């Protein structure tokens, strides 16, 4: 039996082809995808809420806190900010007879800045934490002399939950 051109798309039994017989998808087939989407949304909302409730300082690692303490001291020197410098320095250092007063601090750092430029810290490495005490190597140079990098060992201690730079 030969097929005519107008019979294309019909099977020999006269019904529809397989493409035309597939049923429309039901909502039951979509449930696994909807449940997975719901779980992803709940997880994303939970993570977002935890970031909003928990301060950024609590989410940082101990090493990051130490790096911030070291950066605070050097930034205070660059900005001639005595208050910030004091806040980033440990209590033993503040009580020391050799700790500079504000005028001395500003004058020493202004002279250094005028002669050499700002202090730049490209790296803080070899952070070794032992309880509430840590050491780190600060790689630094002056703006005006980037090729003469120096490495300074720095002691950092935790006081009242905050890391502070100390000389020993």
Topology:
Layout: H1 18-21, H2 27-53, H3 56-59, H4 62-79, H5 82-87, H6 91-95, H7 102-116, E1 119-130, E2 133-142, E3 150-159, E4 162-166
Antiparallel strand pairs: 1-2, 2-3, 3-4
InterPro entries: NTF2-like_dom_sf
Region (Disordered): 1-23
Keywords: Membrane, Transmembrane, Transmembrane helix
Characteristics:
single chain; 168 residues; alpha+beta; Nuclear Transport Factor 2, Chain: A; 2 domains; four-stranded antiparallel beta sheet; 7 helices; 4 strands; 22% strand; NTF2-like_dom_sf; membrane; transmembrane helix; transmembrane; DUF4878 domain-containing protein
Structure in words:
- The chain is α+β, with helices and mostly antiparallel strands and 168 residues long.
- It has two domains: 30 residues; 105 residues, NTF2-like, domain 1 (Nuclear Transport Factor 2, Chain: A), CATH 3.10.450.100.
- It is 47% helix and 22% strand.
- Strands 1-2-3-4 form a four-stranded antiparallel β-sheet.
- It is elongated and about 90 Å long.
- The model has no long low-confidence stretch (mean pLDDT 84).
Derived from helix and strand composition plus strand pairing, the structural class reads: alpha+beta
Count of separate structural domains: 2
Globally, the shape reads elongated
Largest sheet: 4 strands, antiparallel
> Span from first to last CA?
102 Å
Number of helices: 7
CATH class of the largest domain: Alpha Beta
Order of strands across the biggest sheet?
1-2-3-4
For CATH, the homologous superfamily of the largest domain is named as NTF2-like, domain 1
Low-confidence stretches: none
User: Count the strands?
Assistant: 4
CATH architecture of the largest domain: Roll
Mean pLDDT: 84
Q: What is the CA-based Rg, rounded?
A: 33 Å
Any idea of the CATH topology of the largest domain? Nuclear Transport Factor 2, Chain: A
SSE sequence, one letter per element: HHHHHHHEEEE
Percent strand: 15-25%
Q: What fraction, in percent, of the residue positions are helical?
A: 40-55%
């Amino acid at each position: 039996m030969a097929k005519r051109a107008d019979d294309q798309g019909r099977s020999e039994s006269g019904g529809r082809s397989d493409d035309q017989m597939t049923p429309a998808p039901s909502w039951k087939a979509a449930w696994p995808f909807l449940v997975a989407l719901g779980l992803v949304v709940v997880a994303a909302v939970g993570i977002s809420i935890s970031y909003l409730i928990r301060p950024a300082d609590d989410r940082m690692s101990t090493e990051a806190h130490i790096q911030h303490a070291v950066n605070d001291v050097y930034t205070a020197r660059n900005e001639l900010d005595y208050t910030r410098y004091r806040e980033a320095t440990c209590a033993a250092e503040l009580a020391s007879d050799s700790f500079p007063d504000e005028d001395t601090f500003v004058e020493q750092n202004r002279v250094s800045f005028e002669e050499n430029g700002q202090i730049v810290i490209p790296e803080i490495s070899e952070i070794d934490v032992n309880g509430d005490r840590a050491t780190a190597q600060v790689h630094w140079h002056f703006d005006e002399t980037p090729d003469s990098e120096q490495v300074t060992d720095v002691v950092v201690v935790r006081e009242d939950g905050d890391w502070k730079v100390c000389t020993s």
